[in-house]
Amino acid sequence: MAGRGETIGRLVGRAHRRLDALFVELRDALAEGEEHRSLLACAARLREAMEEHLDQEDELFWPAVRALDPEMGRRLRGFAEEHPGLRARIVEIHAKLSDGAPADALPALDALAEDFAAHEAGEEALVAVIGPPRRGGDDTSR
Ligand SMILES: [Fe+2]
Ligand SMILES: [Fe+2]
């Protein structure tokens, strides 16, 4: 939950660490040959969390950053442009698992995990410099 002194960098970083854990959970489930239903549940958790995170960045975080700092907003554009491709890849992995093709899903998951980690690191490096929102401390109108 966002509290006083919270920064967008910390919020995004925490969301990324949750996603990293879900990638590891699905990777482990695949590597250990877990049963179909369990694999599907892991894949659905990762897919839903990724979709929710990408929606949050597209609709909330990055518009807020653009409003505060248009130059940083321009630098984030490349990351936002990667979102449709990332979405398509997790949907495809989920579909491979639904079809009962875990051997096909593993290399696709490893490739996505690597690219997603680079995506996360780039976003975090950019937004790390944004401080917490100011709350009336500089209000000189009264
Ligand atoms: Fe992103
Ligand atoms: Fe992100």
What attributes does this structure have?
142 residues; mainly alpha; 0% strand; disordered C terminus; binds fe (ii) ion
**What is the approximate shape?**
elongated
How many angstroms does the end-to-end distance come to?
31 Å
- Low-confidence segments, given as residue ranges, are 137-142
Count every helix, treating DSSP H or I runs of 4 or more residues as helices.
Answer: 4
Number of strands: 0
Q: Give the SSE order as H and E letters.
A: HHHH
Q: How many individual domains?
A: 1
Roughly how much helix do the residues carry, as a percent range? Answer: over 70%
Task: Report the mean per-residue pLDDT as an integer.
Answer: 91
Bound molecules: fe (ii) ion
Largest sheet: none
Structure notes:
Helix content is 79%, strand content 0%. It is mainly α and 142 residues long. The protein has one domain. The radius of gyration is 18 Å and the shape is elongated. It starts with 7 loop residues before the first helix and ends in a 15-residue tail after the last helix. Residues 12, 16, 53, 57, 120, 123 line the site of one fe (ii) ion.
